[in-house]
Amino acid sequence: MKKSRTLLYHLAAWGLYIGYSYLEAYISKPTPFTWMYLLFLTYFTSLALTFYFCYSFVYPRFLKREKVIPLVLCLVFAPFLFAFTRYFLEEMMYPVLFGFRNYGADTTFSYYLTDNLFRAFPMMAISAVVWNVQDAFRKEKEYKILRAEKTQAELAFLKSQVNPHFLYNTLNYMYAQAYPVSEKLADAILKLSDMMRYMLHDNPDGKVELQKEVEYLRSFIHIFRLRFEDNFFVDFQVDGHVDGQRVASLVLIPFVENAFKHGVVNDPANPVQIRLQMVGKDLRFEVRNRINRQEKDHSTGIGLVNIKRRLELLYPNQHQLTISNGGATHEARLELRNL
């Protein structure tokens, strides 16, 4: 729902509520306009403050995230916020400014408090209903967007199947033809063929063995090394037990590809550093490279944009991605928790 439309709905609802309450009070007990206006002003100001405290702060931060203790504490505080606000305006400010108060001068604060606390409960309930209804509409909208994106992705995948399979078969043929001529070339074609097979492999849950993802990274590095021959420097380390772990397919390669594309790979003093570490069930992946200042295009590219979206869909509340450019160095850190 657009913010302007939401604001309009809120203004209309408050206008109807205040107008109806004013007419009802005036008909049942005619009161001088000034007094009634001022009392209604403080009463509805206190109600609005309570409503938006719950609607804009409490429910989005604590109810949505299922943080029970902060939620309960804030809901206990909300009636006191209503009572304190009203007491400050009606019993402290009005006698000084206008010479009258809502309650008698001998009214104790404890009586005022107990007489007003319950008045906040209906507005707290209304704010909960309004927020939950809007949250339901928001979730439905997000679901429709995700469903449309999934459909488009499936269509794009089906359209792409013809060319990759053709390329895979062609690579196998080229390997057979190249082997008698150059084993080095044939080995490169074979690795490229294996990488193509890995990319085409599809699992129902979209995940693969982490060991295979590591092998894919090694093959990718090997193919790049052929391009630069002996002028290619990469430090790739794998720490911890990767056997038996599963990870989303091709979730690590965009960071390595980005480092090779935008970084300096021919400096032996500053090699591209790639480290994959398993700590219990948590995966930590770091890629660090010196930025190539001679390259005109310093954008991170669509690859990292897509991987951020994939991580949000595949590992919600289960990942942390940090990308930083510290002067001459680019660094990407990814943590996947509870694989």
TrEMBL record:
- Alphabetically ordered keywords of this record: Kinase, Membrane, Transferase, Transmembrane, Transmembrane helix
Question: GO CC terms on record?
Answer: membrane
Is Transmembrane helix there in the keyword field?
yes
Q: Which Gene3D superfamilies match?
A: Histidine kinase-like ATPase, C-terminal domain
Q: Which residues cross the membrane?
A: 7-23, 35-58, 70-89
Residue ranges constituting the Signal transduction histidine kinase internal region domain according to the UniProt record: 153-232
**Where does this protein have coiled-coil stretches?**
none
User: Recorded GO terms, molecular function?
Assistant: phosphorelay sensor kinase activity
Q: Identify the Pfam families for this entry.
A: His_kinase
PANTHER family, per the entry: SENSOR HISTIDINE KINASE YPDA
Report the protein name in the record: Histidine kinase
Native organism: Rufibacter hautae
